[in-house]
Amino acid sequence: MPTRQPRRAPGTRDGRFAVLDPATGEAFDEAPDQRPDELDAVVARAHKAWRGWRADPVARTSALLAAADAVDAAGADLAPLLTREQGKPLAESYAEISRTTARLRYFAESVPGPQPITDGRPVRSEIRWRSLGPVAGIVPWNFPLQLASAKFAPALAAGNTMLLKPSPFTPLATRLLVSVVSDALPADVLTIVTGREPLGAHLASHPGIRHVTFTGSVTTGRAVARGAAASLARVTLELGGNDAAILLEDVDPERIADRLFWAAFRNCGQVCMAVKRVYAPARLCSQVVEALAQRAKTTVVGAGLEPGSQLGPVNNAPQLARVERCTAQALADGARAVTGGRRLDRPGYFFAPTILADVPHDSPVVTEEQFGPVLPVLPYRNIDEAVEAANGTGFGLGGSVWGTDLDRAEAVADRLECGTAWINHHAELSLAQPFAGIKESGVGVAGGPWGLYGNLRPFVVHRPEEERP
């Protein structure tokens, strides 16, 4: 585990910054506040390490499998630290660690081989896949370890080296993760840099970085793309979502309520592909609202380290303020908080799980990504209206359709403008599938072989079938 320094007051002193516990709002540790001018040396070391790392795919596989075993063994240290800085219940932190090791193992075995090209010419042509060089991974605070591994596992498996920058809200567990993983790797193959802006902007625009993979807001994603454009670096951007769930006329509200509720409220609603809007047939809308409200009222809200907590705090003060603003605006627009609708009167960044009814369709809680424990339920008169509303935002990450007639549900799902559509569930991904959004939800593809090949470039070799005189 990284060496801990004596606790100081919030802020920066001696090149460090405070890390807060969202369950209390108080500082409990610190992390290095690295300067942008330190990046040149770090990138240079990553470039030097790349020369050896790219050359031996068998050694890469072995090292990444050893790294996965090491992360498994470190779970009892990682999980409480992740919960302390992120806020999620401890069981969810352990689940995040399991997903991290699973991804390492998946990509460790994903070694791209040469691909022949058959085009009828008397020439033997072959695609050989080559790595890019040093890659930058910039990670948000909602799933720090899972999303870090989503960036470094395919990048390293492809033969690249990586500089990883976590959110300044959640740097500690990621530092420990990188320490554990790096013990199984050659020096400087995976490096972590921590700090506040403009560190991330400088990393994205550094001329020695050949690929920038970023998860976060649309605004920051645009800035990352502009920075990477200066050196023509490749970008992969996952920029969030405003996923809609459409309930069909044949749905049983009580039967689906648990699945639908947790598809919206897991990790305190701080999931890019969470359900953030529900469209229900007008005749069923009140039943849906009541079923979801009942779950919200009985959910145990508390610090993630407290036994029995099902929903933790919002991660940070700026995000809590955003959730409060979106909810207050919805109520001012005429919405009704069936349950919740307010910050809880306790230390930390707790917001009551909130179900909103009678919400105007143009309210920001519908049109924007609220990214918190708030869910609007909206009625529709016919399925065309529901599909149009679901597709009517600038986002296009995911969506879902719920009903008992699976053929009809699939037909409706096929009309959704998004990267992934689920039927009767939501936000469940396989490591083997592509994950991508459209519109403002992102650029590029993560996951599965698509995520691996996004970290590679094709190199084509042509040779004649026989020597010419």
UniProtKB/TrEMBL annotation:
SUPFAM superfamilies: ALDH-like
Active site: 238
Record keywords: Oxidoreductase
Top-rank lineage group of the source organism: Bacteria
Pfam families with a match to the protein in the record: Aldedh
Start and end residues of each Aldehyde dehydrogenase domain: 15-452
Name under which the protein is recorded: Aldehyde dehydrogenase family protein
